[in-house]
Amino acid sequence: MSEQHLPAFAPLSLLFCRTAMAAVDSFYLLYHEISRSCSSYMETLALVGAWYTAKKSISLICDCYSLIRLHFIPRLVSKTDLSKQYGKWAIITGGTDGIGKAYAEELASRDMNIILISHNREKLENVTQAIMKTYQVEASFIVADFSKGREVYLPIQKTLSSIEIGILVNNVDVFYDYPQYFTKIPEEKLWDIINVNITAASMMIHMVLPGMVTRRKGAIVNISSASCCKPTPQVAAYSASKAYLDHFSRALQYEYASKGIFVQSLTPFLVATNKTTSYGFLYQNRWMAPSPETYAYHAVSTLGISARTTGYWFHSIQFLLARCTPEWLWILITQKVNASLRRKALFHTPGKELRSWNAGTNFS
Ligand SMILES: NC(=O)c1ccc[n+]([C@@H]2O[C@H](COP(=O)([O-])OP(=O)(O)OC[C@H]3O[C@@H](n4cnc5c(N)ncnc54)[C@H](OP(=O)(O)O)[C@@H]3O)[C@@H](O)[C@H]2O)c1
């Protein structure tokens, strides 16, 4: 720019500067006026902020305390005598594999006699023999396929009528083959989810609870899932069945605690069982997905202490985070994880549904 043009711009920039300063001055004045007239609102807002922060801090401290009290202290003190506290016999449904089997072994290691109920006779025989041999306790089994509906309960009731049941563990479940939209689930699978996940637990409790109430002692453990804490799309029926178990357990605990019965809702995240092998990295990370044995060891130590827990310390941290997570974020994450698991499953078993997926079919 040549120098002879400069004087022509000078008044313009002066005017601009003055206007800007006047604007700043008037904004400052305005701000001052507003803050003077709003000082009482400000103080109220500050008080609300301080109250909210204090409330959150206290609840965080309480959560940390209960985490330590529940997951670490019981393992430092001597183990509770479960058979004395609840009764000598424990029943575990679906006790031939995964968490159920590990839970049965953990109870046997604590001197409980064991009854396993599952649908595979050969597996039942093997696990029962192994438990008797390893832990020197009595063990027995009942063959029952819970997906068959009402007819399976009468023989179970007859067998159990002469036994004093101290602990009932409702562990059996049916899961999706892979995460799927509701209309794509075969009708038979849907009946299985309802019959096995909901009906079996309710009927088993209905069967053993009266005896426990008469003896004024007993414990019922319902294995729900962390997926019950918020709606989980693409495993909708499964997560709803687990929410049923969670609510049911908590309500029963209110009804029967005064009668000497302890009802616990266990809400684990991932445990490394056959069911979760497709979870890849999560499955391999032992902090996040403990082995069923580690999980059972931790979960049994919470029995009688917490009526609702994940049963494992790292899962409790995850549960706290999940509880604070807004629902939209939970849905976003679970939708992504489940969609990827479905893609992976369909990739390995290509067929009709894979073509639908690739064609971008609307699954709603
Ligand atoms: N694994 C996890 O990450 C996880 C996470 C949250 C909650 N959970 C809950 O924990 C519990 C155990 O899970 P898991 O992974 O250990 O399961 P799993 O390894 O699949 O074991 C399920 C058990 O149930 C038996 N079973 C299946 N269908 C049956 C039927 N119709 N009648 C009788 N018995 C039947 C199975 O017998 P067979 O082996 O003979 O089929 C097996 O013993 C479930 O309630 C599940 O929802 C698990």
TrEMBL record:
Alphabetized UniProt keyword annotations: Lipid biosynthesis, Lipid metabolism, Mitochondrion, NADP, Oxidoreductase, Signal, Steroid biosynthesis
Assigned EC number: 1.1.1.330, 1.1.1.62
Signal peptide annotation: 1-22
Subcellular compartments: Endoplasmic reticulum membrane; Mitochondrion
A matching Pfam family: adh_short
Catalytic activity, as annotated: 17beta-estradiol + NADP(+) = estrone + NADPH + H(+); a very-long-chain (3R)-3-hydroxyacyl-CoA + NADP(+) = a very-long-chain 3-oxoacyl-CoA + NADPH + H(+); 17beta-estradiol + NAD(+) = estrone + NADH + H(+)
GO CC entries: endoplasmic reticulum membrane; mitochondrion
Function summary: Catalyzes the second of the four reactions of the long-chain fatty acids elongation cycle. This endoplasmic reticulum-bound enzymatic process, allows the addition of two carbons to the chain of long- and very long-chain fatty acids/VLCFAs per cycle. This enzyme has a 3-ketoacyl-CoA reductase activity, reducing 3-ketoacyl-CoA to 3-hydroxyacyl-CoA, within each cycle of fatty acid elongation. Thereby, it may participate in the production of VLCFAs of different chain lengths that are involved in multiple biological processes as precursors of membrane lipids and lipid mediators.
Topological relation to the membrane, as annotated: Multi-pass membrane protein
Family from the record: Belongs to the short-chain dehydrogenases/reductases (SDR) family. 17-beta-HSD 3 subfamily.
Single GO biological process annotation from the record: steroid biosynthetic process
The protein, known as: 3-ketoacyl-CoA reductase
Gene Ontology MF terms in the entry: estradiol 17-beta-dehydrogenase [NAD(P)+] activity; very-long-chain 3-oxoacyl-CoA reductase activity
Pathway: Steroid biosynthesis; estrogen biosynthesis
